[in-house]
Amino acid sequence: MPLLTDELKTHYEAVLEHLESERHQTLQQVIAGQARLKELHNSIATLQKSLHPENQSFRYSSASTRPHHLKYANISVRWAILDTLHDSQPMTTAALADALKSAGVQSKAANFANNVSAVLSTTMTKHNEVQQLPDGRWELTDNGIEAIEHIRTTLKFRRGIGLL
Q1: DSSP for the chain?
Q2: pTM of the prediction?
Q3: Structural domain of residue 141, as residue ranges?
């Protein structure tokens, strides 16, 4: 590799400093934008609940271009669980595992239901997004509904399920 001249090195350092500064400014804008997006999401959800108390959770209506058997192939198990429970009645761990597998969740686990059970436990204890009913079925908490409704607005989720 050829050695850099002092002049070229100085120029590269100035460009690097400029790019790092621009990256920092852009990151600050993204953080502010994400905070504003969350505020808007919460305001919209509150108004929707006030206007339509009979319909406690508004469904995500955009149709994926991806076949159902690949819907969740590119998102996390947690997101897939939240999305599935949002649009269904409470489900058992086994039924949820079957639904996720049929929608494309990939796993190398010998028993995928055990994997789903572990994610449900973590999602319940760390995030308070799901709760287990006395009959053993799982449902979303209000926190879980808010979480998936926000997650559904993200570019990462929309790309992951084939909306973009």
Answers
A1: -PPPPHHHHHHHHHHHHHHHHHHHHHHHHHHHHHHHHHHHHHHHHHHHHHH-TTS-SPPP-PPPSS-GGGTTTTS-HHHHHHHHHHTSS-B-HHHHHHHHHHTT-----SSHHHHHHHHHHHHHHHH--EEE-TTS-EEE-HHHHHHHHHHTTSHHHHHHTT--
A2: 0.63
A3: 68-160
